[in-house]
């Protein structure tokens, strides 16, 4: 009875919100006719709740290399207050200033969808999706995800969330070989690919710049998230496990041997930091007190992860798209396909996993064996493969000039 009541209440609430939003749909239609300033560009990311990723890196580049009026839009009051004391020009999206910024800006940069900003005020602007993943192992296409819905569910989505279906004017990808990585591409429509532009990603420029920094500076991030200071000469292994929908999945069910792993790290003056996804239940299941000595844990996101990538000497990951960013550093990668078959039932895989440019393992024993191989061999047998994958993914757009190309492209369009 209670579930039935909740279902009815939820349905009535959705209908109520639909009626409330009707005038806003009219505002969206009329926003096309509001005069927009060619030299005014707005930025946002992660549903307006974060200031990070490609949008931030392009903003930072343009702030130093253009006279464009740049504005960051956020839906988070907390983020607005934090950014107010920074060099970023920020407007709260639900304020009159924020609405005016959206109405009068000629270009809108996003990372996911138009819901990164407030979509009612952007019709008539040039919408550019910079994306958030370079070349993912798993399928991250919103269009393919929605295509799996039943007809009734898709209809409901169109009615109650019509702006989810608005395609950006353009989506930027790292190269012509990664067009299918565009998250809003409907690959079954031929003309859709005309929206996908290969210019390289601001994130690539950012990583290349970070990689030039002294390691002791990068290690400040490492120590910030560790209870015990890590020596500057210590090798760092960064393990980035992917978030799982299966809450029963435990990263440490696959033959985790603390003593052996800790011994290997001790012998080679190395530290492993396992960076759990913020939503991951593995920390709760295992108990962080079991991760001691040279095996640490963290749970950070965003730009800190990229800084940590550049500080690390070896990357271990299962299905994270960050492997494609790590290729820019030309360092060893270990791919841990724990529970591969269950995971592939959960998410589609875009690549042949066994062809990935690194050592592929199925359990913690494989991770330990691989670390010993990397530490003891002296010859990097996967270097050629990594370079081939880097060439495929970036096709020359790993030259540190992606932001420059994006700026030139937008100016040509305008």
Structural features, described:
The chain is of the alpha/beta class and 414 residues long. The protein is built from 16 helices and 13 strands. Helices cover 40% and strands 14% of the residues. The strands form two sheets. Strands 3-2-1-4-5-6-7 form a seven-stranded parallel sheet, sandwiched between helices. A six-stranded parallel sheet has the order 10-9-8-11-12-13, with helices on both faces. The protein is globular and about 65 Å long. The chain starts with a helix and ends with a helix. 38% of the residues are buried. The mean pLDDT is 85.
- Low-pLDDT stretches: none
Distance between the termini: 58 Å
Number of DSSP helices? 16
Strand content: 5-15%
Helix content: 40-55%
What letter string, H or E per element, gives the SSE order?
Answer: HEHEHEHEEHHEEHHEHEHEHEHEHEHHH
Q: How would you state the average pLDDT, rounded? A: 85
Question: Which sheet architecture does the biggest sheet show?
Answer: 7 strands, parallel
Shape: globular
Biggest sheet strand order reads: 3-2-1-4-5-6-7
Q: Given the helix and strand composition, which structural class is it? A: alpha/beta
- Radius of gyration, in Å, reads 23 Å
Task: Give a count of the beta strands, DSSP E runs of length 2 or more.
Answer: 13
